[in-house]
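SAMPLE LOG
Freezer: B-3
Tube label: C17
Construct: single chain, 434 aa
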Amino acid sequence: MTENQRDSGLVRAVGPWALSASIVSSVVGAGIFAVPGTLAACTGAYAPLAFLVCAVAVGSVAICFAEGGSRVPTSGGSYGCVAAAFGPLAGYVSGALLWFSNVLACGGIVAALADVVVTLVPPAWSTLARAVVIAGVVTGVALFNLGGVTRGARLVDAVTVVKLLPLAIFVTVGVVGVHATSFSETAAPTAQGLGRALILAMFALTGMETPLSASGEVADPRRTIPRALATAMISITLLYVAIQVVAQGILGSSLSHSAVPLADAMGRIHPALRSLMLAGAAFSMFGWIGSDILGSPRILFALSRDGFLPRGLGAVHPRTHAPHVAILCHAAVVIVLALTGTFAELAVLATLAVAPLYIAGCAAALWLARRDVRLAGSPLGFRWLGAAVFTGIASMLVMIALASRAEILGLLGLLVVPPVIYALQNIAKGRART
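STRUCTURE (predicted):
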């Protein structure tokens, strides 16, 4: 394994600031607008600690993805490294897990967006309004993406510009409304609450694997990738901790009951700021949904193209060249999930689904490094990769263990289904040849 013909021609042109900005853009999304209230309900004023703990875990996984991406810069995404290390079956399972995690996360964000919108309508209309928002937003974004990848990318770029501004305003303005008495605790968090908080904090911190999948196009990866990772993950962690502290400091015990915590906190300072936060949350969530519906259906398309899913999902529209069948199928699943689940429920399931992918990515990085696989020149060669692999895998196993029994059983079922489908497809192909 000395060269990658499929990805030949890649140019190492991405610098540390560009990579760092890409990581920040991928991680800081819609979840942070909804997570603070649920974290407070789970652990009270101890919630900021959940972000600090999870930052160590995600940072370790990020290093492993960076190492694997620098050795196997594949256009197939993060699961391509797993396939290169452990074979097509492992790659197929990883791709399936990646899609399941994305579709669950998108369903959760759509549900959270609907919760934001229904705060603006009378309670009697809330149920109907929630369903209309869910169906309307997902259908609208999907139809827009059917016009081609260029249109979808422009939508994401336009909305992403305003993503960080409301969060910066929240932290800087919200400091004046913080009260020390809001941090008083009457009871220590339960083990179940702590586990839930860690899973939700992990959900808010995930997403770095997308920009790191292009590590083979990073200039001077030995220096650029560690610097970008450190800059991005430290900045994100500090931002999240600041948001949680300010929200807790303003709302106190009422934070745990808020569906729109950032907006409710700013409402204590000025009504106009509440409207700004609601608009910011809606824009950020809408942008995240647009980004997901732009990218995630391509996973279905790629798996179909590679013969792992029905051929219909690999169809391309003759005029727009968009994978229209995959986009519509993905959108339909998102609508069903958002209508039947809440943000917290779907966020937990999304995090659990991505945990095995992270474990596989960590193991693949170690396998590729020990065999000195290098398909695009000099790899990252992280000195303490073994420690990062151990921390990343151990953290993900702990994350899975913190889930409920039903959720763990569901995850095990999810892990069993792809290999069964893979085996059945191979049997069918073998019979077709004979």
